[in-house]
Amino acid sequence: MKYDLTKKRSRSAQRTLDAFSEAMLTLIGQKNFEKININELCDLSNFPRATFYNYFDDKFDLLDYCWYLLIAEAHLDELSNKPQYTLLEACNYAFDHVYDLFKHREVLLKAIVANNSPTGSLITSFITSVRFTTRQLFYQYFDTQKNNLPTKLVADHVSNTILLLIEWIFLKNHDVSKAEAHNYIEKFLGNLC
Amino acid sequence: MKYDLTKKRSRSAQRTLDAFSEAMLTLIGQKNFEKININELCDLSNFPRATFYNYFDDKFDLLDYCWYLLIAEAHLDELSNKPQYTLLEACNYAFDHVYDLFKHREVLLKAIVANNSPTGSLITSFITSVRFTTRQLFYQYFDTQKNNLPTKLVADHVSNTILLLIEWIFLKNHDVSKAEAHNYIEKFLGNLC
DNA sequence: TCTAAATTTAGACAAACGTCAAAATCTAGA
DNA sequence: TCTAGATTTTGACGTTTGTCTAAATTTAGA
Q1: I need a labelling partner for A112 at 20 to 30 A (CA). Which of A145, A159, A193, B105 fits?
Q2: Can you give the pLDDT at residue B61?
């Protein structure tokens, strides 16, 4: 990403980021990501091409920024306020937040899934993005815990398990309640808790 | 992929497929996948652009074909000759075959990893490709087994666990022997066996 | 409010993409 | 070996990409 998200944003920079991400989210809800081009995003957001390239490397980069915004809505970082949780509780907590995000954003996400192949680059990049965020979260969270297994390996395994269920429920369309999902998670992670 | 891999290939078609996949494998061992363009592949393989587009949609498509060839070298399908295996044995068996593939193709794969970011699209697509193959394998394999969990969900979980260790060992460069890996797998899957 | 610095915009550019129709060449079966 | 059908190649085409420069505009501090 060309634009530095860590520095404080001017009002116009924020406007530009908002406009492009909103345009992208609108378009991927309407058509296949592969078919979207930069001019289309510029037309919809009413910004010139050069401005797009001031902020983003390419459309994949903008897509990543969209995922970043969307995942932020899950407030996964609140897990750091629950240091007393067991591994299983932390896992259920993270799962619930992602599950709620999917329910809350159901209209948008269903439209995206309807327009984009489950094995295409859009869905892959979304899953990869959530997986990455969850892994980072658990790297921090398990930091102080003791285990005879490598901490990061366990964190990755736990993240994979959460993502597996998210895929199963929302991408492969299986009707699973939160409680049932918790049951699955416990069976999958049982030995580690 | 434009070319139908299921139909029998003419000699020239096989030559073309070989040349392009070899050119791609050579190039990704030398430079970053993002920087490779179609003309470069055509120069190296001595085929015209239009021939490339006769066979492949784009460079990602050719890359997928390369992964298909590489993964075939692991002979994962031989698992179907071992119907008596437990879930854990089957998992170790599949892991071993992928592990051996990485050892056997170490020079090529290390060069690829050295030239391509672990979070970039090349590595992601490779991992996704192996994951997909492993999942398909276990969908077949567990087909007749009984479990109070959905068969495909278990197959996906098992595949994820194998891939987790492959990533851990070969992409994140942790020195883990086969025996140690089997130990990890048992701890991660313990409850399901 | 004014001004200097930073950012955005317009427009043009070369390079790469992906498609096409017609010509050349290959292939498999008689 | 010959030939009809299928495939590959050629070369050209319009589109999209990503970069660049100079002009216009916006920003933030005095």
Answers
A1: A159
A2: 96
Query: How would DSSP label each residue in A86-151?
Result: -HHHHHHHHHHHHHHHHHHTHHHHHHHHHHS-TTSHHHHHHHHHHHHHHHHHHHHHGGG---SS-H
Query: In terms of DSSP H, where are the helices of B46-177?
Result: 49-55, 59-72, 87-104, 106-115, 121-141, 151-166
The shortest C-alpha distance from B156 to chain A (Å) reads 7
State both tokens at A58: 């390419």
C-beta atoms of A156 and B164 within 8 A: yes
Closest residue (Cα, C1') to C20: B50
d(CA B161, CA B166): 9
CB contacts, 8 Å: A150 with chain B: 168, 174
pLDDT tens for residues A102-121?
999 999 999 999 999 999 99
The full set of domains in chain B, from first to last, is 11-69 (1.10.10), 74-192 (no CATH)
Q: Which whole number is the average pLDDT over A6-11? A: 84
* Residue with the two structure tokens 């990403």: A1
Which A residues 38-77 touch B at CB under 8 Å?
A: 60
